[in-house]
Write a structure and sequence with these properties.
Length: 65
C-alpha cells in the first residue's frame, strides 16, 4: 500500500507554520519584543511557504532502459 497523496500546498503550509513557530520562539528566547518577533516570524513563514511551494517538490526520475 502507498501512503496517501498530499497536495504540495498543504506540505508547504505545514513547513512554513512549524518553522515560523520555531523562529518566533527563538526570537522570544533571545529577548526580542513579542510584536517584533511575530512580524519577523510571519514574514519568514510567508517566505518559507513560497520557497517550499516553488522548490520543494522532487522531480520524477526517468527510468533508464
Amino acid at each position: 500500500m502507498r501512503p496517501p497523496s498530499v497536495d504540495p500546498g498543504v506540505t508547504s503550509f505545514i513547513w512554513a507554520f512549524v518553522l515560523g513557530l520555531l523562529i518566533w520562539g527563538f526570537l522570544l528566547a533571545i529577548g526580542m519584543s513579542k510584536p517584533a518577533a511575530f512580524i519577523i516570524a510571519a514574514i519568514s513563514g510567508c517566505a518559507i511557504f513560497f520557497y517550499v511551494r516553488v522548490r520543494g517538490e522532487d522531480q520524477p526520475r526517468r527510468r533508464s532502459r
